[in-house]
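Entry 14. Structure prediction run on the chain below.
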Amino acid sequence: MNPGIADLPDATFREPADANAHAGTASSTQPAVAESSGVVTRIIDAPDVVLVGSGIMSSTVAVMLKRLDPRLRIQMVEVAPELAREASDGWNNAGTGHAGVCEMSYTPTRDHDGHVPIARALRIFEQFEHSKQFWGAMAATGVVDDPTGFIHAVPHLCFVKGAGDVDFLQARHAAMKEHHFFRGMQLTTDATVIQDWAPLVMEGREPGPVAATVGDGTEVNYGLLARRLCGWLALQEHCGVATGWKVTRLHRGDGQWQLGLRCVATGEVREQRARFVFVGAGGGSLPLLQTTGLAEVAGLGGFPIGGQWLVCDEPAICAQHEAKVYGATPPSSPSLGSGHLDVRRLNGQRQLLFGPFASWTTRFLKHSGQWSDLPRSIRLNNLTSLLRTAVRNWSLVRYLVTQGLQSMDDRMQALREYYPNARSEHWRLVQAGIRVQAIKKADRGAVYFGTEVFSSVDRSLAALLGASPGASVSVNIAIEIVQTCLPHLLASAEGRERMRQMIPTFDIDLKQPGNAALFEKNTREAAERLQLLPNQ
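Output returned:
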């Protein structure tokens, strides 16, 4: 059995104090935080925990740990001059609160009896419930203010056309509506009803079989949420958030992690030591893991995938679409999912985004990455895995290259599958984020798109690998990290109660029919706290 951090010799973690005693108390020596400009950089002495990266994953883990034990000394290190600038930033992701309602990639096939298995959709729905509960608790206790700044209620639609896809969507709906999670989901094959739900989708469409489902959903600005969580952390006693500092290496010695830090602006070099490290650096996680010398990292490689959005800023067009509309998963890219037409609210303005269009890249990060990221990540111990993956997934590689070479007319044609009357003069192309999918020896060349947590054998280090639905399930991942690497924080009744104050059902299986009433109670409370209910 692998030890947790509490079992390591001379561990500096203290027994948790009253979680509410200091949870909202700012250190008297801390400077004020401006949300637009980030926080004032501070590097603390002798941290218990160091988090690399400031996106939604690192910020969630940091705040959860501090709420579980306010005496923890926590350091966050971000290489960029701004917080949550990479994958979590609003322009670098779809902002979908992934809950399995509209994403057909979670229910892609039928079984031998013709039924559509929905286990994966149920799992992602429950995980997103954890996120809403946590965010609601943070809003209720003042950790983040005004939830309407980062989350909005938005209908989630599946739209399909053609007899085959219509039949599949009907089977999907029949399976999902039987569960209490999706009891409110509606299905129609009436084009006039779909036009009422999503006018742009039906405007100018040729007659033919169509169908759509609609259910309650959300649009989330994960970057703004992450910056607010970081802002709270920076004001807590014994905590520091440092921007513009790069973690250059991780070395295990004397029962601690030794971190090399370098200031991007001045070149100043520092060292820190910590008992536990979380690497939530997006595409930067793999290169950093490769410096650890851990045997379990050997053979680990990365497969970067870029993305692009078509964006519409025209107010008259944007005002007609208040939904996230996903389509059937195309056979050419089953692992990457379908395109989708989304309403977004970014930089104080309403936009429509369509995509993402995948593209080939060798960079691991959009802003601070370099073309040499992929070549420099290749080692003798991962070369075979990378080559096997390229050969086995050559159709995917070809698809990525083809996507990247598309003309604007090609992209507009794809958009017109969702918005037939779209005109090219109303749309512009912008770069989305980059995701690096983990390639492991054990996968034997297969590429499994998704999010997973890597942890060292001694549980002193954890890292987030992969991509979607990472942001949506960030809270569930944080729970997993606590349970796996820091179990002593939940070992007592008091510790479990502190977690329930943040996520009331963290240790309850809401999927079970007997917990339907409990689900309804907690999902409504979270929605009230996040101001997601009508007329709030």
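Residues 1-37 have pLDDT under 50 and may be disordered.
Filed with the rest of this week's runs.
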